[in-house]
Write a structure and sequence with these properties.
The chain is an alpha+beta fold. It has two domains: 2-85; 108-329, BirA Bifunctional Protein, domain 2 (2-Layer Sandwich), CATH 3.30.930. Helix content is 42%, strand content 20%. It is built from twelve helices and nine strands. It has helices at 3-21, 25-36, 41-47, 57-90, 108-122, 136-139, 172-180, 221-236, 283-288, 305-313, 320-323, 326-329; strands spanning 126-127, 133-134, 165-166, 185-194, 206-216, 241-249, 252-262, 271-281, 297-304. A seven-stranded mixed beta sheet has the order 1-4-5-9-8-7-6, with helices on both faces. It has a two-stranded antiparallel sheet with strand order 2-3. Helix 1 packs antiparallel against helix 2 (25-36), helix 1 runs parallel beside helix 4 (57-90) and helix 2 packs antiparallel against helix 4 (57-90). The longest helix is centred in the N-terminal third of the chain and has 34 residues, at 57-90. Bound molecules: phenylalanine.
Length: 332
């Protein structure tokens, strides 16, 4: 038996062992080139065939074929296995359908605030902000509501030990704004408010308001009415009407509640629904912030965001707005 055959057999088993150990495509490819490539082992071995006897030549040809097929078989087997195991190694099954990402959107309350703010800005109002954690002075006293005022009863709230409280209305922002700047003032302030309310379909311990304040020379009730009407029409449609009813707030004089007429409300008859609390800013409030009530006058109004959201989007229970159930929220 010729040395050549031994050499070929030895090279074959070495290459097969190397293939067994190969862990990636690159090393498999290297073994293939080493053995079968143009300058590789097998072509070189075939050149030596001229040195062997004629009887042995067919046998060497047979062995050469065996080397070739066994290597090729082993190589494709290895490549297949590598392909299959690739995903398992990474722990990723690329055949599983992707997870669908939902595109988020604004919460309904934020959206209604944005809508209100857009309308008021077009009328020349500037947006301001104020603290949710207020002091008693700004939330009550400066708003003409001293400690013994009966109005405080309906606005009980959460108090901190240091006397601060969670604001019951956005009205303290009126005071904070006027303390900081001279007239004219024309602001709206959206924000969260808190009261000691028992939750039900129309009450919540926290809710949102938008405050409006306009102070300048010669501001009258007519300006208030025009502003509220304009807002109502922009928000609910051209065909709504408003009406003003006498009311009481400690910090406005006269005070009103303003209703909006909804045609065919919920498919039924026309209905007046209360939307705004408002009035002419009480001279005491102007004095409290250092304004001269003989020189400037103004109006203020407040509206409940949740109420508007519920009316506009036909929501039967205020609590839906806070439960953050996606099945509810994604409808809007
Ligand atoms: N702050 C009042 C409330 O929460 C609403 C209001 C605002 C009334 C401004 C008059 C002027 O009920």
């Amino acid at each position: 038996m010729s040395d050549l055959i031994d050499k070929m057999e030895a090279a074959l088993s070495e290459a097969l062992a190397d293939l067994d150990a190969a862990a990636d495509e690159k090393s498999i490819e290297e073994i293939k080139i080493r053995m079968l490539g143009r300058k590789g082992f097998l072509p070189a071995a075939m050149k030596e065939i001229k040195n062997v006897s004629n009887e042995e030549k067919p046998l060497i040809g047979k062995v050469a074929n065996k080397v070739k097929t066994e290597l090729n078989n082993k190589i494709s087997e290895k490549l297949d296995a590598l392909e299959d195991s690739g995903s398992a190694v990474d722990g990723i099954d690329v055949t599983i359908p992707g997870r669908q990402r939902k595109i988020g959107k604004k919460h309904l309350i934020t959206r209604v605030i944005d809508d209100c703010v857009t309308i008021f800005r077009r009328m020349g109002f500037v947006v301001v902000d104020g603290p949710e954690l207020e002091d008693e002075y700004h939330n009550f006293d400066a708003l003409n509501t001293p400690a013994d005022h009966p109005s405080r009863d309906s606005q009980d709230t959460f108090y901190l030990l240091d006397g601060r409280l969670l604001r019951t209305q956005t009205s303290p922002v009126q005071i904070r704004t006027m303390e900081k700047q001279d007239p004219p003032v024309r602001i709206v302030c959206p924000g969260r408010c808190f009261r000691r309310d028992t939750p039900d379909a129309t009450h919540s311990m926290n809710f949102s308001q938008i405050e409006g304040l306009h102070i300048d020379t010669n501001i009258s009730m007519a300006d208030l009415k025009g502003t509220l009407l304009m807002f109502a029409q922009e928000m609910f449609g051209e065909d709504v009407e408003i009406r003003m009813r006498p009311h009481f707030f400690p910090f406005t004089e006269p005070s009103i509640e303003c209703d909006v007429l909804f045609r065919n409300f919920k498919g039924g008859k026309d209905s007046w629904l209360e939307i705004f609390g408002a009035g002419m800013v009480d001279p005491n409030v102007l004095t409290n912030v250092g304004y001269d009530p003989e020189k400037v006058t103004g109006y203020a109004f407040g509206l409940g965001i949740e109420r508007i959201a519920m009316l506009k989007y036909d929501i039967p229970d205020i609590r839906y707005l806070y439960e953050n159930d996606i099945r509810f929220l994604e409808q809007f």
